[in-house]
Amino acid sequence: MALIVALAALFAVLAFALARPHGWPEAVVAVPAAALVVASGAVSWQDAVAEVNSLAPVVGFLAAILVLARLCADEGLFRAAGDFMARTTGGSQPRLLASVFGVAAVVTAVLSLDATVVLLTPVVLATARMLQVPSRPHAYATAHLANSASLLLPVSNLTNLLAFTAAGLTFLQFAAAMTLPWLIAVAAEFLLLRRIFASDLAVPPRPAPRDEAVPVPRFAVVVVAATLAGFAVTSLAGLSPGWAALAGAVVLGARSLTAGRSTVRGILGALDIPFLAFVLCLGVVVDAVMRNGMESAMAQVIPAGDSLTTLLVLAAVSAVLSNAVNNLPAVLVMLPLVESAGPVAVLAVLIGVNVGPNLSYIGSLANLLWRRVIRAETGNATGTGFTEFSRVGLCTAPVVLVLSVMGLWASARLLGL
Predict the structure, then answer these.
(1) What is the pTM of this model?
(2) What is the pLDDT of residues 12-39, one digit of tens each?
(3) Closest C-alpha to 92, from 205, 187, 176, 195
(4) Nearest CA-CA partner of 231 in 157, 175, 279, 186
């Protein structure tokens, strides 16, 4: 009965998160669902508190990164990126796609996938409109790279933060192990999307108006660079990288507020407290599912070791699970099962839950958020319905997943992990 209650609560939370009726936040159902599994005895109060405590540093870091990304937007960093993309097309749409890929890959890696979906995607769409070219290739570039290009750093994705803790690696070790998979994923996505959207990319862009270039906000760039260095320093010192993210947000926030480019209300909105509560409550619900039989059942089918075959299986299972229940619950389910196998197995799971979501909208919350951004900006004129999204994903995700895992296996051998 406890397992039934826990599974029903998880299904309700995910169904609501996918549908989000009336735009209500995911916490509307997640908070009562967490209370239900505790009240029913599916998970004890002590275990629920322990789960929240274990996730609290990750959620705190996510909050700081969300604010930092919003402040970068207020300072004009994304407007400057859009101007750069428009000015480097050279009359070639493939070159525009390459610049979109470059910018999206860096933004995703450094400022997280949420910044790519929420802040960069509208800029990319506006650039396509200005150049009078089809926006589909470039819109899909931001969608796919929000997932695939989030492999590089622990800060790139909430799933990375969870895997970072489980892997027991330093910030630099994590980045070193994932550099090759990240490069492979970005390159493979580019080649595949360029082929899939060849007809759209054949339309030549109209020259961008040569007005004065949008200035790059140098102070924001310096703060982001210093924050990135701070992630490595805090990791080596045994501290949470959240402290570096908080410092960057405080410094940039003070300047932006003083200059009148940001507001206290906007910064509080960027925190997205309901979403943070959703993450904590989802962790409690998934913990209840695992404690009541799911962990032992999954353990029977998860292979042990870190051979290439095992890593491919782990990544594939994680990808399938992501598209069944979303990648955040998937990583919470998979990590306890592979943690004892070592960091390489953990990173293989991470590839599965980051690349796999490109198969369907259900795969990640970023996909659903991207869909809402597209509809708000274009009214779905770009043709991003469920069928086409899945068709494009089927052409890319399996290939990218396999190649990325092979890159991880090679990196692990070179680094002695």
Answers:
(1) 0.87
(2) 988 887 777 877 888 899 999 999 999 9
(3) 205
(4) 175
